[in-house]
Amino acid sequence: MSQTSTTSAAAQTAALPVIMSDASSEDWSLIAVKVLSIALMPQGGGTPVTVYTGPSQAPFVNLAQLDQIGELLGNASVPVGSYSGATLTVSANPGDILLTAAADPHAGFEAAPGSSIPSDQIQIQGKQGTARDLTVPVRLEFAAPLVVSVSHSNALDLEVDLGHPAFIVAHLAPGAAAPVWAVNFDGPVRRHPRADLTRLVLRHAYGNVSGIAADNTSITIAKDLPALPVQSPEVPVATGQSLQILADAVNGTLFYDVDARTRSTIKDFSAQAASLAGKYVRVAARYQQDGSLVATRVWASSRFNSVWLSPEGHVLHVDPAGNVVTVADESGGAVNMTVDANTQFYFRAPQDALADATPIGAGTGFLAAHDLVRGFKVHVSVVDPLATPLVAQSVDIETAAFDGRISAPDMTGYTQMRQFNDSADDYRYLLNYIPPDAKNGVDANGDAVTGFKWWNFAYPTLVDSGANAIGDFVAATGGAVDFGGTAGSVSPWGVSFARWSPASSPGMWQAANAVLIPTRLPAGSVANPFSNGSFTMTVKGGTTAVAVEVGTTAGSATLAYQIDRSGGIVTVSPVDVTTADGLAALTRGIVSGAKVKVYGVPQVDASIKAYVLAYYTGETPAN
């Protein structure tokens, strides 16, 4: 597919990739939804423009696999112009949302590790329609218009924040054996601006080869998704979408014949043309500036299960002594992968074709140097899918994310510290900033950015970059609050997206982007009720009440939710605190003793600036 425009008497159109991604959650290995349609709203009004329609038997999309990477739903031809919003429609019948807990969720998580949540314990908020035809239309207003033009890259990326406190809410009633899980799409879904298509990391695409170009430069695949829940052997589910994918004629594409267990570097598909048609493939691809898709690596087999049977998920554990990497899978389990001297490690860098196809390390030394840590999102390819144990042929590091407490920031770098249930997974990593002249994408205006950049999670379009970015970051991460007792202090929390620096000796990770994310506070109760924009709260194990500031200014207000349980039904209702009615509702709810859940940013005055505030009414939860 190339991004060429067409002119007609009616309208000029441009190609628009339609993508879904997420901000991750370590608590879930499977959050699967059925996407029925996506439509854009023209700025100024007019008929909505449908850019994606799922097949009659819509496949599941596992949002938990899309940690800062994109699932390409398809390519649409869209009238040029500006669009102010979108409507995402998901299916909401019983069984249309699948939830499976991760193999090692955070301490106190309400579901057993690896367990699947029964459909009768999942309550989908905002559903409409009649039995067997229930849907949730999720209407979004873009922070800035999406401009579709023939003169630059276009992309619609709808991101679901899996860690948003109001997305999946557990409510365990007193005396109940299991919680109810309320799934709420109002708030956690937003558009992720993609000003530079070439930097978009795509999830590996699956499909059946339906055609090969006459000049052998490209293949066309009928895109598939793996069946969910996972089957054994796994089977494909058709998406109804078709993708054209080019071989890299300059740098070469790595081609793996999974059946023959061979590997070669190709610059076209001439050597494979006679045997590739009809086979299943898994493709690591990147976008060119003109909108075409180019393959970095291709795996091919006559059996779908053979290209699928390669663990994809977050790293759960790294054992340098035993040379084993444990990767979470979509079934809520953990897959052990042996690393040997031939295992190659790649870091996805689609904006640099050569770097995208060049290993950053090989063998067991990569583990011994602690260059792979828990939380990285990876896709591992195996030497032999039938072998025991499984041996990693290659490890695609799709996102190198260090998350946790940020400490000791200065003008050179900072320390990222994370603790897990298993202390063997803990890390304390010193991240230096990338060089000030290193290219680092573009800002919301399309202007080139160099050097380190960061932003607050609540305001992804307000990127702090340039000469003052590091100084501003140091100032923003200097606060902390102390609840006393066993709860202790709460420090700024963030996620750092690192970039591999081969120029270092030895190579190392450097911080390219950082996102300050709201710190999840322990479960709490209101000490002093809401008044004049704040209240105080205590938390489990704490001895000191801490002030919580609630923002009420439009555009930067705290996201407040009232969670009510009555007659076994849980309702999650957004509260607009920028209005008089919303403030009145909040005042009625935030009273002494009320149970609250707060995600916020510690301030230098020892208060918490609330990003998300949830308060419970009706039958309050047991924990």
Q: Could you characterize what this model shows?
A:
The protein has 623 residues and is mostly beta strands. The chain has five domains: 6-194, no CATH class; 205-308, Beta Barrel (OB fold (Dihydrolipoamide Acetyltransferase, E2P)); 312-399, Beta Barrel (OB fold (Dihydrolipoamide Acetyltransferase, E2P)); 402-517, no CATH class; 524-618, no CATH class. It is built from six helices and 46 strands. The strands form nine sheets. It has a seven-stranded mixed sheet. Strand 30 (413-418) and strand 31 form a beta hairpin. It is globular. The protein starts with 5 loop residues before the first strand and ends in a 5-residue tail after the last strand. The model is unreliable at 1-9 (pLDDT under 50).
Overall pLDDT, averaged? Answer: 90
Give the N-to-C terminal Cα separation.
52 Å
With helices defined by DSSP (H or I, 4 residues minimum), what is the helix count?
6
Strand-pairing-aware structural class: mainly beta
| Order of the strands making up the biggest sheet | 24-23-22-27-28-25-26
Low-confidence blocks of residues: 1-9
**Total beta strands:** 46
Total of domains: 5
Largest sheet, strands/sense/barrel: 7 strands, mixed
The proportion of residues in beta strands is over 45%
Shape: globular
Rg over CA atoms, rounded to whole Å, is 24 Å
Helix content: under 10%
Which properties best describe this structure?
single chain, 623 residues, mainly beta, OB fold (Dihydrolipoamide Acetyltransferase, E2P), 5 domains, 7-stranded mixed beta sheet, 6-stranded antiparallel beta sheet, disordered N terminus
